[in-house]
# Entry
Amino acid sequence: MEDERLCAAVITAGDGVAGDPSVAVVSDRRLSVAALAALLQDGPLDTVLRVVRGTQDVKAALDEYRPEVIIADGTWSRWPGINNVSWGGRMLLLLDPEDDPRAFKQAVQSGADGYLSRSASATALGNAIEAIRKDHHYLDPLLEGHIHWATEEVRLRLPLEPRLSQRELEIIAAIAKGRSTKEIARDCSVTAKTVCNHISHIYGKLNIKDRGQLVMYAVQEGLL
# Structure
């Protein structure tokens, strides 16, 4: 269903040409979009490429500009279904430590790559964006307990997760520490192809799609 409240601003450093980093702010509150856009413009992201309103126009703008990071701040009861995965964009959700517990469960179920407190400073926001761009995940310490609780609540309501082997757990921990496939293969005395096979099996068991989500899983499960 079309939601006319949904708004977005796409912001970039420079003129929006290929290679320029870009961030989109998405919210069902226009004031939130305006405030976050202004905050970002105080930093290196100084050019607003487009401001749009309405679910279809928001999705069209995001698909056109394909921002590296989408900052989502909403009160929606149902996630608007932004397909950022199709171009590799990362999702950073803004939450309040005092939010209803259901908001945290919904956040976890949305498949976001990072979570930041709404009370975060401009510096913290910039650091979170940079972490998402570089490491593909971010978890604000103020939200850590809430996200871990929500993750466990969601996990308990899912079908029983296939058991991970000790070697698979070792590989997850190594990836979370930034080890490359070749480095993991050398550490485990196996071929890089074997490590790739393990990673593929892990993705299938955990129903995840990339290393960023795998790192988030490792953090949430205390594997580091």
